[in-house]
What does this fold into?
Amino acid sequence: MSHAKSYPGHVTVDAPARSAAGEGLPITELVAVIRRRRGAIIMTALVLTMLATLVGLQRTPYYTARALVMIDPRESRVVDVEAVMQGLGADAASVETQIKVLASRSHMEAVMDDLGLFRDPEFNPAAARRQRTVEIADGGPLTPVLRALPDTLLLVLGLAREPLAGEDEAGWVAMRETSIDTFGEHLAVRQDGRSHVIAIEFTSINATKAAKIANRVADLYAAGQLDAKLAATSQATGWLGERLQTLREELESAEAAVEVFRSGSGLVDTASGRLREQELTDLSRTLMNARAELSEKRARLELIRELRLRGESLETVAEVLQSGVIVNLRQQESDILREEAELRTYFGEKHPRIQNLIAEKANLQAKIATEVERIIKNLGNEVSIIASRVADTERQLTDLSAVNDDERATQVELRELERQADSSRELYESFLQRYKETREQQGIVQNDVRVISRAAAPEQPSSAGAGIFAATGFGSSL
It folds into this structure.
């Protein structure tokens, strides 16, 4: 994962080929040949060494400065907003991606603009020459003279023309592209081993400039990563805010729809449920009790009718036995019977007192019979009243059931509206929580990139020096 580029000043020194001059010759003859030609050999070695040294001295020394940046895999995250606050990964693919970002043309262009390197002759040779605003005609041998004249005079004399529209812009763009290419040849970006560290190396003819550019490449990269993260967080916060406003309006609309529908339908909430359902339950219970009472009363009335048909006494009927009037009359009858029995032991049946008691007894029995009839008649009336009440209750229950069926259909619609309101409320609360978390996280965003080692101006050139060229020349001469 290395994006190293070649740069001027670096040379590759090949080891001198082994001499085969002595192959096949005896040692004595070889020594003799060297002695005879030692002057030529020494002279050749001196000449080649001097030439190589001169070449080395003529070459411009280049200096390489090195800065280190680290991709920090640790991230400060908030629950439910990982996608918003996601930082850089530290795997091999992520590191390789960041290397490509560092070595991208856009990043190099930003560094060059920031440091004004498009006007630096090292990257833009045209900057060292005088910049003309006109295009000079070909003057042959007089061209150097024409170049020395002012642009205004050349235009008046017709020896130059202003560039056509677009030519300046096209030339400027081409110049920038060429300068970026040259800058890229001086820049090398690579992963430092298998770590999360990226090495940024820059080579220049000036040691201080090399360090300055390497540091600026690292600084702008780190700042750009932080700005991108802040921008993403800010954009997410803005989007969440807009979405939150929309959800708030939807929630208010859904809740208003529920209230309007509930008011228009006449549905009223009570502690035990819907009012209509509560009325229906109460009416059903009343009908059940009335039917039970009617059934009981009818059974008693039928029993009385059967006793009458069989000619049996009705005094055993519960209503008769429980009647206070009957009890009182029976008590009076009992007293008369006791008194009659006592008198009969002393007097005969024709005795006036006994005759009076017999008359009183007959009168009491008539009253008892009348009271029994009245009780039976009342029981029949009660049966009729209860039957009427049952019929009326059944009718009310039927009508109320029909109304309740309509209300149930209405309640289905109401529950659907309530579900929509609940769904809108849950979604709104979820986005509100995300929005709060993102706002809080926005103030503690940490950069995933750190410059851990700033470049220092190198003291020694990284290109081959005169000594290496001298050694190469001397070795070649042998």
In short: Residues 269-434 form one domain. The chain has 14 helices and nine strands.
